[in-house]
C-alpha cells in the first residue's frame, strides 16, 4: 500500500510560517543592516555597537588593513548576505524535516543503527588516549602561572573560570588526578566514573591554556568524551568487561554483549558532533565570500600567512606549485566540509567522506604543518571494527571453532566468558555440552556426554574430510589442554603464547595442571544453572543522560557555529578561515635599548618555542594593535623576557637595559621563506625596563 504523502494542516501552517520568516529576515537584513553599521561607524548607533565597530576598526588599522567608511559599507552588505544565508540554511533544514518524511526516516535509520560494543570501545580508547596526550603536552602549568590580569576569558568559560582558582598549587595535583583517571578510562577501569572525572577535569585543565588569548580547537575530544561518559563504552576492551564476564558466568551467561542500538547511538552522536566541527567553517567560507573564496589566490595567501608565522617551514612536497592546486584545494575543502552532514546518512558516502577528511587533514599538514591529529584519530568511529576483525578472522582462520564446555561448572563458565571478552575475531562459538540439542544442531552428536563432562572439547570442520557427510568424518576435535592450544590460535591476545605452549615440557606440564584442575572442579559445581551459555538481557542502561548531554552539545555547537563564535570554550565554532587574505603581513619586531643607546635585536624564535607555534601568534599581534593596551602589552613583554633570557639574547647585566622597543614591520610575502627584511617599518610601542620588571615581579607573587 503506497504511503500517504499529503501534508497535515499543522505541517502546512508550519511551512508557511517558515517561509514568511525566511522572507522577513532576508528582506529585513538587506535594508536594515547596512545603515546600522554605517551609523555605528559614525558613532551614532548604540554605545555597545559603536564600541564594537571602533575596536574592530582599530584592529584593522593596526594590522595595516583598510578601515575606511567605504570598507565598512561593503562589510555591512556582506553581513546582510550572511544573515540571508543563515536564514536560508535554517529554513531549508527545518523545511526538509517538516515536509519530507523520507528525510526523517533516513535520519532515524542513521541515528538508531546498532553497533558492536567493540566499536564503541575503540572510540573510547581513541578519545581518552588523545585526551591523555593533551594533558601531557599542553602547557597547562605554564599558563596557570600567568597573572590573572593577562587572561582573556573565552565565551562560556568566563562564566566559571572567573570563580575558580587558577594557580600551579591547584593545577598540579588536579593534573595528576586527571592523568590517572584518563589512563583508567583508556583501560576501562571503573569506566563510568573515570570517564566522567576525566572529562570534567579536562574541561578545566585543558581550558587554562585557552585563556592565553588564543583558543586552540581541541573541543571535540571533550565533547565526544562527554557523550561516551553517558554510554556503555566499557563493555569491551576493558578491565570492566573481564570483571563483568566473571560475574555473568556465575549467573550462567558466557556470551559477550551483542550488537545493539545502545552501542551504535553514542557513535552516531559523536559523528554529528564531528559534523558541526566541519560544517560551519565550510558554510561561512561560502556565505561570506561566495565563489571568491574558492576561485581566487586566497588559499595560496592563507598558506603564505601560515608559512610566515612558522618562519622555517617549507613543504616537503611542493604541491602548492602544481597548476590549479589553490582552486582545487579550496573547492575540495568546501565540498568536504559542507557535504559531511549529508554524507553521514548513507554508509557508502560516510566511507567516502571519511577518506576525504583524512586526505584533507594530511594535505593541510603537508602544506601548512597543521596536523589536527586529535581530529584525525576520531575517524576510528567511521570503521566497523568488529565486522572488519570478523572478516580478517574468516580469511585467516576459516569459520569459528566450537568450544564445548560443562555448563554446570562455574570454572568452565568463567573460562568461556573471559575467552569471549578477548574473542575479537569472533572465532569461538561456545556450546553448552549439557544442552544436547545444541550439540546435535551443530553436527557434533557423535561426541559422547561422558567425555564432554570430563573435558572441555574444541571442534572444527576439516575441509576435504567427509565434507557434507556430517558426523565425526567431517570434524577435527581436541580435548583438555590440546583444546586450549587450538583456542590459542583463534584468540589474538594468546598468539604470543603459541611458541611456548607447544614445547614438550610446557605441554606436558599443561596437561598435568589441566587434569588436576578438571578432576577437582566437582567441588565447585553449583546446584542450579540459569540457561548457561545463553545471552542474558543487556545490562540496564538509561538513554536519558545521553540524550540530554548530546542534545545540549549539538545545540550549543549549532548556536555558536551560526554565530561565528570561535573564541569560546568548551563549545565553539571551529576556525572559519573564511577571510580573504592578502600577500602582506604586519609583524612586531623587538629591540632591547641599553642606557648607552645600543640597540640589541631580539628574535621571536624563543617566544615561539616557549608558547608553542599555535599560541604565540595572539600575544605577538597584541603588541601591534592601534591603540595598544600598554598595561597588557607590558605584561606580555614580561613573559617574552623570560624566553629571551633563557635563550641568552639579553645582556648578562640586565641593569644596563633601559627599555624594550616594539616596531611594526610590514612584510611582502612571496614564498615559504620569511623575507629577510620588511618592506617598511614604523614605530610602535616602548616599555620601560623598570615597568617590565615590575610586571614580572607581580606575576611571580
From TrEMBL:
<dbReference type="Pfam" id="PF04134">
    <property type="entry name" value="DCC1-like"/>
</dbReference>
<feature type="transmembrane region" description="Helical">
    <location>
        <begin position="183"/>
        <end position="206"/>
    </location>
</feature>
<feature type="domain" description="HTTM-like">
    <location>
        <begin position="112"/>
        <end position="386"/>
    </location>
</feature>
<dbReference type="InterPro" id="IPR053934">
    <property type="entry name" value="HTTM_dom"/>
</dbReference>
<feature type="transmembrane region" description="Helical">
    <location>
        <begin position="155"/>
        <end position="176"/>
    </location>
</feature>
<feature type="compositionally biased region" description="Basic and acidic residues">
    <location>
        <begin position="674"/>
        <end position="684"/>
    </location>
</feature>
<keyword id="KW-0472">Membrane</keyword>
<keyword id="KW-0812">Transmembrane</keyword>
<dbReference type="GO" id="GO:0015035">
    <property type="term" value="F:protein-disulfide reductase activity"/>
</dbReference>
<feature type="transmembrane region" description="Helical">
    <location>
        <begin position="218"/>
        <end position="243"/>
    </location>
</feature>
<feature type="region of interest" description="Disordered">
    <location>
        <begin position="672"/>
        <end position="701"/>
    </location>
</feature>
<dbReference type="Pfam" id="PF05090">
    <property type="entry name" value="HTTM"/>
</dbReference>
<keyword id="KW-1133">Transmembrane helix</keyword>
<protein>
    <submittedName>
        <fullName>Vitamin K-dependent gamma-carboxylase</fullName>
    </submittedName>
</protein>
<feature type="transmembrane region" description="Helical">
    <location>
        <begin position="110"/>
        <end position="135"/>
    </location>
</feature>
<dbReference type="InterPro" id="IPR007263">
    <property type="entry name" value="DCC1-like"/>
</dbReference>
<feature type="transmembrane region" description="Helical">
    <location>
        <begin position="366"/>
        <end position="385"/>
    </location>
</feature>
<feature type="transmembrane region" description="Helical">
    <location>
        <begin position="83"/>
        <end position="103"/>
    </location>
</feature>
<feature type="transmembrane region" description="Helical">
    <location>
        <begin position="263"/>
        <end position="284"/>
    </location>
</feature>
<dbReference type="GO" id="GO:0012505">
    <property type="term" value="C:endomembrane system"/>
</dbReference>
<feature type="transmembrane region" description="Helical">
    <location>
        <begin position="324"/>
        <end position="346"/>
    </location>
</feature>
<dbReference type="InterPro" id="IPR011020">
    <property type="entry name" value="HTTM-like"/>
</dbReference>
Amino acid at each position: 500500500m503506497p504511503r500517504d504523502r499529503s501534508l497535515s494542516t499543522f505541517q502546512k501552517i508550519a511551512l508557511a510560517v517558515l517561509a514568511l520568516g525566511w522572507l522577513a529576515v532576508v528582506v529585513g537584513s538587506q535594508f536594515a543592516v547596512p545603515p546600522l553599521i554605517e551609523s555605528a561607524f559614525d558613532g551614532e548607533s548604540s554605545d555597545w555597537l559603536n564600541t564594537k565597530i571602533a575596536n574592530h576598526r582599530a584592529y584593522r588599522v593596526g594590522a595595516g588593513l583598510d578601515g575606511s567608511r567605504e570598507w565598512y559599507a561593503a562589510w555591512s552588505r556582506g553581513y546582510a548576505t550572511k544573515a540571508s544565508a543563515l536564514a536560508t540554511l535554517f529554513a531549508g533544514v527545518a523545511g526538509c524535516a517538516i515536509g519530507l518524511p523520507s528525510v526523517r526516516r533516513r535520519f532515524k535509520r542513521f541515528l538508531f543503527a546498532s553497533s558492536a560494543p567493540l566499536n564503541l570501545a575503540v572510540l573510547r580508547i581513541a578519545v581518552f588516549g588523545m585526551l591523555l596526550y593533551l594533558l601531557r603536552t599542553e602547557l597547562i602549568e605554564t599558563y596557570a602561572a600567568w597573572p590573572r590580569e593577562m587572561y582573556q576569558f573565552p565565551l562560556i568559560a568566563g562564566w566559571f573560570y572567573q570563580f575558580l582558582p587558577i594557580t600551579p598549587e591547584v593545577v598540579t595535583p588536579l593534573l595528576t588526578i586527571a592523568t590517572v583517571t584518563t589512563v583508567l578510562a583508556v583501560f576501562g577501569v571503573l569506566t563510568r566514573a573515570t570517564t566522567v572525572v576525566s572529562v570534567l577535569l579536562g574541561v578545566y585543565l585543558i581550558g587554562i591554556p585557552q585563556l592565553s588569548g588564543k583558543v586552540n580547537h581541541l573541543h571535540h575530544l571533550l565533547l565526544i568524551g562527554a557523550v561516551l561518559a553517558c554510554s556503555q563504552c566499557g563493555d569491551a576492551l576493558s578491565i570492566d568487561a573481564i570483571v563483568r564476564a566473571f560475574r555473568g558466568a556465575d549467573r550462567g551467561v558466557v556470551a559477550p554483549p551483542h550488537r545493539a542500538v545502545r552501542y551504535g547511538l553514542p557513535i552516531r552522536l559523536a559523528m554529528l558532533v564531528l559534523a558541526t566541527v566541519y560544517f560551519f567553517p565550510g558554510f561561512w567560507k561560502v556565505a561570506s565570500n561566495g565563489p571568491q573564496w574558492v576561485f581566487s589566490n586566497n588559499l595560496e595567501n592563507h598558506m603564505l600567512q601560515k608559512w610566515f608565522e612558522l618562519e622555517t617551514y617549507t613543504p616537503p612536497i611542493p604541491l602548492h606549485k602544481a597548476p590549479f592546486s589553490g582552486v582545487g584545494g579550496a573547492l575540495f575543502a568546501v565540498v568536504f566540509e559542507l557535504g559531511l552532514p549529508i554524507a553521514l546518512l548513507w554508509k557508502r558516502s560516510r566511507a567516502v567522506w571519511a577518506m576525504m577528511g583524512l586526505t584533507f587533514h594530511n594535505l593541510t599538514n603537508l602544506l601548512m604543518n597543521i596536523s589536527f591529529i586529535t581530529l584525525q584519530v576520531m575517524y576510528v568511529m567511521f570503521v566497523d571494527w568488529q565486522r572488519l576483525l570478523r572478516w580478517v578472522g574468516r580469511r585467516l582462520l576459516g569459520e569459528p571453532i566450537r568450544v564445548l564446555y560443562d555448563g554446570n561448572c562455574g570454572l568452565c563458565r568463567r573460562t568461556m566468558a573471559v575467552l569471549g571478552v578477548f574473542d575479537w575475531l569472533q572465532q569461538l562459538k561456545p556450546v553448552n555440552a549439557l544442552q544436547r540439542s545444541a550439540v546435535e544442531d551443530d553436527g557434533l552428536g557423535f561426541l559422547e556426554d561422558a567425555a564432554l563432562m570430563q573435558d572441555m572439547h574444541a571442534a572444527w570442520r576439516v575441509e576435504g574430510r567427509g565434507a557434507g557427510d556430517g558426523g565425526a568424518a567431517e570434524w577435527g576435535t581436541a580435548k583438555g589442554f590440546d583444546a586450549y592450544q587450538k583456542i590459542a590460535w583463534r584468540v589474538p591476545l594468546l598468539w604470543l603464547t603459541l611458541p611456548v605452549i607447544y614445547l614438550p615440557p610446557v605441554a606436558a606440564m599443561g596437561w598435568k595442571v589441566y587434569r588436576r584442575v578438571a578432576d577437582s572442579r566437582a567441588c565447585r559445581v553449583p546446584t542450579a544453572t540459569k540457561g548457561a551459555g545463553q545471552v542474558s538481557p543487556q545490562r540496564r542502561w538509561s538513554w536519558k543522560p545521553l540524550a540530554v548531554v548530546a542534545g545540549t552539545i549539538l545545540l550549543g555547537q549549532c548556536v555558536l557555529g551560526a554565530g561565528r563564535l570561535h573564541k569560546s570554550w568548551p563549545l565553539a565554532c571551529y576556525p572559519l578561515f573564511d577571510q580573504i587574505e592578502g600577500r602582506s603581513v604586519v609583524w612586531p619586531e623587538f629591540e632591547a635599548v641599553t642606557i648607552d643607546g645600543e640597540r640589541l635585536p631580539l628574535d621571536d624564535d624563543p617566544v615561539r618555542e616557549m608558547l608553542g607555534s599555535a599560541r604565540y601568534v595572539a600575544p605577538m599581534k597584541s603588541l601591534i594593535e592601534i591603540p595598544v593596551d600598554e598595561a597588557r602589552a607590558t605584561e606580555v613583554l614580561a613573559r617574552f623576557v623570560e624566553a629571551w633570557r633563557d635563550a641568552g639574547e639579553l645582556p648578562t647585566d640586565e641593569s644596563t637595559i633601559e627599555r624594550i622597543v616594539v616596531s611594526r614591520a610590514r612584510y611582502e610575502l612571496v614564498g615559504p621563506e620569511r623575507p629577510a627584511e620588511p618592506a617598511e617599518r614604523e614605530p610602535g610601542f616602548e616599555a620601560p625596563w623598570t615597568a617590565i620588571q615590575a610586571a614580572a615581579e607581580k606575576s611571580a607573587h
